[in-house]
Write a structure and sequence with these properties.
Layout: E1 12-18, E2 25-26, E3 32-38, E4 48-54, H1 57-61, E5 68-69, E6 73-74, E7 81-82, E8 93-101, E9 114-118, E10 130-132, E11 150-158, E12 162-172, E13 174-179, E14 182-183, E15 199-206, E16 214-223, H2 225-228, H3 232-236, E17 251-260, E18 265-269, E19 275-278, E20 281-285, E21 289-292, E22 312-313, E23 315-317, E24 324-327
Parallel strand pairs: 2-9, 15-24
Antiparallel strand pairs: 1-3, 3-7, 4-5, 4-6, 4-8, 8-9, 10-17, 10-23, 11-16, 11-19, 12-15, 12-17, 13-14, 13-16, 17-18, 19-22, 20-21
Length: 333
């Protein structure tokens, strides 16, 4: 339905947020929407609002709401307005905007367009395996147990023109991920600390411009983090298990969903075909720091055509079926 906007008031919604974030990835079935208001008039207030949500930028630019139109709602609320439209779909991007009515009951102009993107609602949508490589036997520290960090790699050929691609990634421990030699994301200490027995957080990245038509190389480095490293919290709760509080081997779970221009999709996942080995990161621990031996670097290990014949096959580990996978709720570090 086309909605004609007549901007008779200068009241304007700004700083649009979904679940407290600007243009986030979320996995909430009914996200809460918020905004702030600006006006040149003193003591201005909002007496009503209208939210529209669309499935494409073309529709929202025309103020056409094919997902949700709240209609005119008599309310001064601008915070935590619960979405009440059509059922949202996993891995889908949504576009929204809002307008307000002022104290004279005049409508203001529509806000700028904001977005939110859905993560994966259901655990069954994760096709990737948990993979790992136990390197406990290579510990050389006589005071603490600090084994090397495992490295992982995989090459895949994409034979069609790429339209879009998303990386969904998590780990039990900490990780850095690479595509064709480029690190993905700028955040650290990901996926974030949680009670790994109940849930594990994941991140989503747009990697469309990182992939190539042809050969692609994927790489990852795992560290022990809060999951398998030394944990101050263990001392706080007086646990005799100070290291490997949740598990002894860091694990990686990642999948790249590629959509081609012809509409076909392909998913690259972590599984037993990935290769792994130890490398220059000889010790890696949140409390005890890192030891890096540059002599053991694998030059070009995260690029295509690297000779990985010395590398071993990654081990697939069973999933904890009761553990949830959730989008990281905080801001990146």
């Amino acid at each position: 339905m086309s909605i004609q906007a007549h901007a008779l008031s200068d009241i304007e919604p700004i700083y649009l947020r979904s679940e407290y974030k600007v243009n986030p990835v979320i996995d909430i079935e009914n996200p809460r929407l918020s905004w702030e208001l600006i006006s040149k008039e003193y003591n201005q207030i909002q007496v009503a609002y209208q939210i529209i949500v669309a499935s494409s930028p073309e529709l929202i630019e025309q103020n056409k709401a094919d997902v949700w139109d709240s209609g005119k709602v008599l309310s001064n609320s601008t915070n935590q307005i619960e979405y009440k439209g059509n059922k949202l779909e996993s891995a889908r991007k949504y576009y929204w905007r809002v307008r307000s009515w002022d104290k004279s009951k005049k409508a203001g102009k529509w806000s700028k367009i904001a977005t939110w993107e859905m993560g994966l609602f259901y655990k069954a949508e994760w096709k990737a395996d948990w993979i790992g490589f136990n390197l406990d036997s290579l510990n050389r520290n006589t005071d603490y147990h600090l084994p090397p960090a495992p490295y992982f790699r995989k090459e895949t050929e994409l034979k069609k023109t790429i339209k879009s691609a998303r990386l969904y990634i998590t780990s039990l421990g900490l990780h850095e991920f690479y595509i064709n030699g480029k690190r993905i994301g700028q955040d650290y200490f990901i996926p974030g600390w949680t009670d790994y027995n109940k849930r594990v957080y994941y991140q989503v990245y747009d990697v469309t411009n990182k992939l190539l038509e042809g050969k692609n190389a994927f790489g990852a480095v795992l560290s022990y983090g809060w999951y398998a490293g030394y944990l101050g919290y263990a001392l706080l709760v007086k646990s005799p298990q100070v290291r490997a509080f949740y598990g002894d081997t860091p694990l990686l779970k990642a999948q790249i969903i590629v959509e081609y221009q012809n509409g076909e999709k392909e998913t690259i996942t972590t599984d037993g075909t990935w290769k792994t080995i130890d490398g220059p990161l000889r010790e890696s621990d949140i409390l005890n720091g890192e030891t890096y031996d540059a002599r053991m670097e694998w030059k070009g290990w995260n690029m295509s055509s690297f000779d990985d014949r010395e590398w071993k096959s990654a081990k697939v580990y069973p999933d904890n079926k009761g553990r949830k996978l959730q989008v990281y709720p905080g801001n990146p570090v």
